[in-house]
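step: validate -> pass
step: tokenize input -> pass
step: predict -> running
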Amino acid sequence: MGTGNLFTTTTNPTILHRSRVLFHNLASYFVVGFLFILLAGHENTNPRLGESHIDFYQSECQHLLEIHAKASQFNPQAVSGSMDFFIEALTSEFYAQRHFSPAWTINYTGTGHLDTLIQLLDSAVYFGLPEPIINAASLNNTLFEMEKDAFDDNKLRQRVQLELAATRSAIKYMLLLSKGIRQNDTTQQFLDYAFRMPHILNTSIETNNLSETILAQQPNIPMYNSIIAQLPVYIETLKNISKSTDGLAKSILASVLFYEGILEQPAFDSLHSVEQSIKIYQAKNHLSSTGKLCRQTVNSMAERLEKNYMRIALNLDRLRKVEITSGNFIFVNIPSYSLHAFHNNKEEKTFNVVVGKEKTPTPVLSSRLEKIITNPYWTVPKSIAYNEMLSRIRKDSSYLKRNRYFIINWKEETVHDTLVNWYHEDPLGKRYWIRQENGWGNALGKVKFIFPNNYRVYLHDTPSKRLFKREHRAFSHGCIRVQHPDELAQYLSDKYYAPYNDSISISESIAGREREVFDIAANVEVHIQYITCSADTENGLKFHKDLYKQDKTELEAIFEWQKAI
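step: predict -> pass
step: emit ->
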């Protein structure tokens, strides 16, 4: 995909023809001109157009729209097929709700609402929806064909085509902005939302609130909003470097090298000279390390920026699919090794974390914080018991006792380890588990945070504090280790436990030795996500290492099958 394809600005070819269309219409209507003047005052005025209109050809258009709608009858009880089929059904329902009257055209010309929609579609790239997914050119072309000849026999057919294409585009745009790219989604949550689209779109047109309504479908997630806010700067950088023919401004070059992770901020300093930074980029991308900004290097930078734009689009799509329903939530971003605590949708705490290794990745999930346990014991997952402990147990009969492990049965009763045949193919079977005592040396440290999930993962403390000094922190078996879990526990307790309970403080419990369980009654969501791009107001967009190599696979799966509307 070339750089020009992603960031082409659509020019409306109809502007030159609007005056000719108006002339033809006036010539056609002069006989009923006086009647038009009398009635125009009683028509609803579209403030976007600034004038009143009577649609003299509405009945013919209504008739064809009704035929189309009945051919694509909307049936909420039998949703199946592709997303395009679903959007077609929603389009038919849109016209049925407005008694098949045109929404985007009047007297064979586009309305102000159509102009607004085309402008929104033209700006889709600024919302992480590249041109292969959203393409306003087709609407412009159809509008041009309809308006270019006032007496064309195909005008009615072109008008109906334009109406249907505009409605499909508007509905698809709203669904993409809100729920992301989906080939086929039959979950009730998605369907309930999608079924409201025809009514929402009709209302936005009736109230002259189209632009605001469409853009309001985006998720109100701080991480999403931060990326959207920084995306125009990124796109401008890409545009500037793509059209550069004679070097680059120093500020643009610094931005590119920051996006590439070579500079710590989008500016050069005493530690990072221009020549040295260019050499690092060239070596990183297998170019001749001259330190000079040759055409080959500039082209490489443009290509890298375009590829990273697609990563931005992918991550915005991932965030659109996160169902955050509460303003109080914990957000763990796996690639950035970070945990973010939000209260009333504002970030209040940030913690470094250790996540799963590539072979034992931390899963993506959404749940709800259920309890905090201080001084927890650790029930060893059988995969760890067999893959990492069994050989040691067989070699050293004191291994379990020395490391404060013991055996429990299915009733959680302690049994002697001699009851287990450690040389059996499956020594523990379904009867026994290995458990580690709480306190000193426990793998979970002094506190863990429980949220229901099918992967048996949780947040917890760790005795291996040294790992938090590493830049890349993928060392666990899938659970998330928190750098300052006592601080997180106290924060969560102050916000969501202490106000409802009069008991021992969680900090005192952590300092003690007894196992304590703190049930969290408040609705605190937990979202563990895989977002390889983030943003902040100071430095802009930042890309993170694709730890589990998911970006390439998901980019192909999500974007390749999409066709422009």
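step: describe -> The chain has four domains: 3-215, 222-321+547-559, 325-377+444-531, 378-437.
step: cleanup -> pass
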